[in-house]
Amino acid sequence: MSPDPDPDLSALRAAAVHRLYTLEQSEQLTRTRITGVADAFGVDPRTVERWLANARANNGTYQPPGRTSFTLTPYMLDAIARWRGNATAAWKELRAEKHPVPSLPTFHRATNRALTPGMRAGLRGGEKARRAFDVAGERDRHHRNYAWETDHVEASVKVRVAGHIRKPWITFFIDCAASAICGLAITPQRPSREAVLVAIRDAVLIDEHHGPFGGIPTYLRVDGGKEFLCATVKEALGALGTEIIELPPFTPEGKPNVEAVNGAIKKTLFAGMPGYTHAPTLRGGKPVDPDQPLLPFEEFVRLVLEWVQRWNHENTLRGLNGQTPREAWDADPALIDTVTTEALHTYTLERHGRPLNISNGGVRWRKRNYIEDWMHGRVGEKVHLRYLPHHDHRVELYDPQTGRHLGHAVMAQQATPEQGLSLKRARARQADRLRTQLKKAEKNRNTRYAAATRPAPPIPLDAMPEEEALQHLRNLDGFDPAAEALPDLIQLPEPDAGLTLPINPNTPPPTDPKDQP
Fold this sequence. Notes:
The chain is an alpha+beta fold.
């Protein structure tokens, strides 16, 4: 059994003095009561009288006087700020200037009272260091697809990209309710709006290639990066009905889910890869193994996708009560709004402003011609052009009136031999189709007649028989004989003599002749 805690003498003193004050107000206070309180606290009765005087000055509540302490002046605070939070250096400077200062320990205690740990860290390391002492609340997770978070993370790994050494970037889209990675895009260079559009497409789609996570989110939290706030991304998300929430820059606490994924992939994947940039080094910053083989970009992408699979299906999270993101996603009853692949393809492409004409050289855009076999016969028509940023080798063309997707087109200078052959075959098919139509028209123009053996008017070979012609006319007029027939107007035939007729129930029974008078 634990011993009882020591009594709080300050609270007991305040209660005892308040009792004496109450007795004094009711004129029942005696010297004996004052002496009894003094003996209980081991002080002189005159000390109790001073306590009682303190209570009279504070409306009956005893308030012990605080210790007088040294307080920093604004000039002293400026000195501490000049020395980047170094109180000792500031104290020495003030003392050298003959400024009245207390002892160094007293100066340190005054500094700790005047500046919070966060402010002292900020003076030493700036705003980033100060933020480490901030307190951030926790948002409600709501339901799946209520809110997503997105951000870029630079991989702390060097990989080989087409003979060059680079550090790739990853763009994540995270569902806040299940902490699931709905989509991502990996680029060898710093991502642009093209990577954001690709990641949006990967996150929204739900099929055998993209997994069960996805749909249309209600809100999307971004950190103010220009790639996330460009006109193309806003148009794509606006068409889906998603509202963009722009967070202040450098506020990782505003999107904790995506920051947790960024931190986890650095510690559990990048740290074990060759070319890890934060690996321990030797004296002078030299790497332990400077000749280690670096991963090719394709292998890096494969390992990242495998890690994402493990995060979504195997990793249990404390914030999900020990569930994996897949289990939390499947247990959520919220409905998922989806969009077709064709519509999403349109939304996530940037559109050229005005319609363009199809000419004999294809579609002219940015001083380049774009061609494809489906354009044959459409010279003079107008089309809307959409494209993926930084992918000028291919564009998508749409009907400007209906918005229907007509097909893609490739840059004429970069067309492959197969695409050139397909273009020639399409041209030949158009010529053959025209030639067939012309021959058929000429053949139908010359009326052919049947051969005759007796004198008679010439009979065209393509003439219809009478019954067939009448049926053709009925079909043109929408005439249906079965629907127009009226049974009352059709005379029924006489019954056959051998037919047994039904008995009429109203016919009187025959009588016996003997019964007649």
